[in-house]
Amino acid sequence: MTILVTGATGNVGRNMVEQLVRAGQHVRALTRDPAAARLPEGAEAVAGDLNDPPSLARALDGVTGLHLITIGGAGGETLGTAPEIMELAARAGVRKCTVLWSGTEGPVEEAVEKSGLEWTMLQPVEFMSNMRGWIESVRDEGVVREPYGAERSALVHEADIAAVAVAALTGDGHAGRRYVVTGPEVLTVPGKVRALSEALGRELQFIELDEAQARENMRAAGATDEVIDFVLGWHADPPPMAYTVLPTVEEVTGRPARTIAQWAEENAELFRS
């Protein structure tokens, strides 16, 4: 079995590549620049661009499992080439496909469902890795700036999302399933800051932003207005799934979901000066 991971240098994709290599799977990692990918030994880096389906022909050759992301650009816009990609995948003999959503189902999921492949939809809530957006302000000022401090979130470790995807691609019984993937606890923003403070061994300050400030920060980071509206709308009034703990990780992988304390310990050095 050969598994192609798209978004292979992202938070979930990189974890998938590492886990598949450890499991002895032949993993092919799609990236625009293989030379700069810094993938683990044993992974095969291949060049390709999801926005240019013909560039994927070599990457898909001999692949039986595909992990597909739904974002098509740095601004967070939805991938617009999914029908062409799925046609290429079906012709190449791909049998299974996992799809990592971006917060709502759309044309990518629709194309995958119509493809005839065995599909599994991954619907994680907030990623713990989003906290890496605090690195600069924590290092320089000991401060975290976020809107909606009272928002509750069952945020999930990116390695757990990857583990569910790996299980779906390498095991049986996952076809046609939609997996909502959460962490094991519900936290507000100050709760996340507290967990990071404990891992760092120093007190961090939380400063709550208003919506206008949050919007400007996202725009400066390159997000499109459509993405900004969606993200801020989600955080301002999150759906119940965002703060409801589910046992998906343990049911699918056989082990409990990782805690925010574990994530903070694993990533603490990134936040130190």
Automatic annotation (TrEMBL):
Q: Which domain of life is it from?
A: Bacteria
Domain NAD(P)-binding: where? 7-170
Q: Which Gene3D superfamilies match?
A: NAD(P)-binding Rossmann-like Domain (3.40.50.720), UDP-galactose 4-epimerase, domain 1 (3.90.25.10)
Matches recorded under InterPro entries: Ergot_Alk_Oxidoreductase, NAD(P)-bd_dom, NAD(P)-bd_dom_sf
Q: What is this protein called?
A: NAD-dependent epimerase/dehydratase family protein
